[in-house]
Amino acid sequence: MSIESVQANAVVSIEYALKVDGKLLDSSVGEGPLWFLAGYDNIVPGLEAELIGMKVGDSKNVVVQPEDGYGEFDEEAFMQIPRSEFPEHIPLEIGEELNVSDNEDNSRLARIESMDDELVTLNFNHPLAGAELHFYVKVVALREPTAEELEHGHAHEDGAHHD
Fold first, then answer.
1. Please, what are the domains in the chain?
2. 85 CB contacts (<8 Å, ≥6 apart)?
3. pTM for this structure?
4. CA 160, CA 149: separation in Å to the nearest integer?
5. Poorest-pLDDT segment among 16-25, 50-59, 99-108
6. What are residue 150's phi and psi, to 5 degrees?
């Protein structure tokens, strides 16, 4: 069975460009297309919804609102931590991204927002939280997923088996 259009459980290959506020933030140009398994939350939901039904060669511009992209900016998603609690090997620089674990060993990404002599303020918002995302997308390939890709919940770029 061949896949004719973007649908759940299809491995999709797209070329894309992402702009926010008119500024190009990311593009597959020169990097090769992005491969993903549709229906497994591998890309922002607003973009994936707009791709459903597109065929190889189809392209379009898509605007994704924050709630269907990286979420709304959360003013409460900040935490102040005493500077003394950071291990010495961690560079304390504004903009530095850190993986932070809570008491239950759940890991979340945070960025250093600000700091002074005593406190470091971490921002747990995604860098694009609150942003309206402007995508140009083109479907370049579609294929059936392998059993392993379905089991792993993501595409393997070349369709090969990976550990």
1. 11-70+130-152 (3.10.50.40), 78-123 (2.40.10)
2. none
3. 0.84
4. 9
5. 99-108
6. -65, -40
